[in-house]
């Protein structure tokens, strides 16, 4: 089953309503924003990070207009030498390719060893958008449904102030 269908089947099973926008491949948030302009909802930036020894993995979700302060995030996560995870780690842990990172990659994390962090700023929004493990599509869903999705996958999440 392809990654997009895996996501949509899960959302259907959970009774989560979505709005789908199909578009050409978008590898950056700037590219994706051009295709979803005018649709209500916060545009998210999803980053898959690891520590230097690759003993901990982090999925950080924030507003795509915000710039990540890696030093501040390192302090908030109480870790050292935080960096973007490699393409191999992304494929191994979330089963997806670069440019497709989102909460939906959690569906593929068999070890359930990815820690989820949400910037508190986005939680005040009613809706948000993510690639459904496929960067040729963007899915909008309610913030409440996004939180339910995370918990339904067996994850907890922490809210941080980025």
From TrEMBL:
UniProt keywords, alphabetically: Hydrolase, Protein biosynthesis
InterPro entries per the UniProt record, alphabetical: ProX/PRXD1, YbaK/aa-tRNA-synt-asso_dom_sf, YbaK/aa-tRNA-synth-assoc-dom
EC number of this enzyme: 3.1.1.-
Signal peptide positions on this chain: none
Annotated GO MF terms: hydrolase activity
Domain of life: Bacteria
Cross-referenced Gene3D superfamilies: YbaK/aminoacyl-tRNA synthetase-associated domain
Uppermost EC category: hydrolase
Domain YbaK/aminoacyl-tRNA synthetase-associated: 23-149
CDD domains, sorted: PrdX_deacylase
The keyword Lyase is assigned to this record: no
Family that this chain belongs to: Belongs to the PRORSD1 family.
UniProt-listed PANTHER family: PROLYL-TRNA SYNTHETASE ASSOCIATED DOMAIN-CONTAINING PROTEIN 1-RELATED, YBAK DOMAIN-CONTAINING PROTEIN
UniProt name for this protein: Ala-tRNA(Pro) deacylase
Native species: Streptococcus rupicaprae
